[in-house]
Amino acid sequence: VRSPFTFKHQSTMNSESTSSAPAALIPSSVTSNGSAVTASSNVEYRNASATGEIPSYDGDDRARATDFANYFCSYAQLYHQKQMLTDHKRMEAYYDAIMGNADVFRDKVVMDVGTGSGILAVWAAHAGARRVYAVEYTDMANHARRLVEENGVGHVVTVIQGAVEDIDPQSLEGGKEAMECNDGCIDIIISEWMGYFLLRESMLDSLIRARDKFLKKNTGLMFPSHTTMYFAPVMDEEERKTSVKEYTSSMTDWNDFVESTKTMYGVDMGALDSAFQREQKEYYLLSSRWCELRMEQVLAEPCMVKYLDMCTCTLEESRGILRGAPGSSFDFDVVGEDDDTASSSLNPMPARHAVVSGFSGWFTADFKSRTDADGSMAPKISHPTLLSTGPENGYTHWGQQVFHLLSNIPVIRGQTTRIKGELELARNKDNARLYNCRVRFSTTRRRTGEPKAAGTVLMNGPVIETVYQIP
């Protein structure tokens, strides 16, 4: 198995083939004020265990404390829970999936992993579950207990505060008997574990371990059951230019600072120019941005870059997208309209004004019947539900992650721009909750209407490789 790559945030242009080896890369993390801190300078406080796992699994006390401070603590705040609870696309999907399939919840034992306020656990109880274990790592568990009691389901829902990885199956209803039969004791696991571009936060690790430890192998259900990651070229030029302007302004301000410090205090701070420039470039230009895109900003048919079956996916699959893995390559055609369509009122984005500003990623989550071979005896989902965080579905708190290019790609009227490349996604080695994303591609142009493989190449661009952090 290939080990996760290490990122150094930089963009390269290479006219060689895409098989040329990339340079070594070093990750860093971004602070709230826009500066970047190289995590490797404080490796004793890594937000990862000694084995590179999320600390809630096998981290020592220091790693777990760091993980709590960097990740879990925000989930203990009601304002943060409210942000998710007022995301009505999210709420509607989970409510419909649970209450619309009450027949599969009736008299079942359910586990809610990362229950937060406890609302999914309450719905599971309303749907007829016999017992619900609501697992919450933070002190939000205290609020969940109150919510459960006030909504009259305290006799069904048991709130457990702690990491799901630490729960002993024998402490759960039917757990001891299930272990003796080499099976799980939970009928349904529900969880809202998804992060930006699906994988950020790495909560999927905890879900997989909970599944393998507690779920009934042949009849258990996962809610959601399947997830899919999508990737597409987009036009987001105003935001891209804003980031460039903010970066330029920050560097101008730094240069003024260096000169004034030298003049007033006799100390030349210029020795730190390159370090400051790298920090600011990472933050303003090489970090993905949350965005709420409109459909017309998506310039080509999105491609699926990863598909996960929640009943069968592995820890290795949860760690990202490896170079060369199925779905990691993309091949987009961005079509420039001809003279007849470029000025049409039906065309919201004429080719003469269109540019490719970057790429965007989002995900969908399905609540449907099991599709794996071992799940043929599992209850069928009669009311399947889909949660989409894509531009076609409007606002969700996940939004889309946009990876802006350092220079845009013009779309020429009457020509088709082909963007062919590959995507790689891996965890930051010093913070297992965060991801870095490598995008490597080249562009060609041909006359619109000519076949992709046999058309006359009007332009053949260099290979461009850029590494972003998903902060």
Fold and architecture overview:
By secondary structure, this protein is an alpha+beta fold. The chain has 13 helices and 19 strands. The strands form four sheets. Strands 1, 12, 16, 17, 18 and 19 form a six-stranded antiparallel beta sheet that branches. Strands 9, 10, 11, 13, 14 and 15 form a six-stranded antiparallel beta sheet that branches. The N terminus is likely disordered.
Largest sheet, if any? 6 strands, antiparallel
The N- and C-terminal alpha carbons lie at a distance of 26 Å
> How many E-type strands?
19
General shape: globular
Bin the helical content.
25-40%
Radius of gyration, in Å, reads 24 Å
Helical run tally: 13
Q: What share of residues are in beta strands?
A: 25-35%
Low-confidence stretches: 1-43, 341-352
The structure class reads: alpha+beta
Q: How would you summarize what this structure contains?
A:
The chain is α+β, with helices and mostly antiparallel strands. The chain contains 13 helices and 19 strands.
Which descriptors apply to this entry?
globular; disordered N terminus; 6-stranded antiparallel β-sheet; alpha+beta; 19 strands; 471 residues
Topology:
Elements: E1 11-14, E2 29-30, E3 36-37, H1 55-58, H2 61-70, H3 78-85, H4 88-99, H5 102-105, E4 109-113, H6 119-126, E5 131-136, H7 140-150, E6 157-161, H8 175-180, E7 188-191, H9 204-214, E8 221-223, E9 226-234, H10 237-265, H11 273-284, E10 289-291, E11 303-309, H12 315-318, E12 329-335, H13 339-342, E13 355-367, E14 385-388, E15 400-410, E16 415-428, E17 431-447, E18 459-460, E19 463-470
Parallel strand pairs: 4-5, 4-7, 5-6, 7-8
Antiparallel strand pairs: 1-19, 2-3, 9-11, 9-13, 10-15, 12-16, 13-14, 13-15, 16-17, 17-18, 17-19
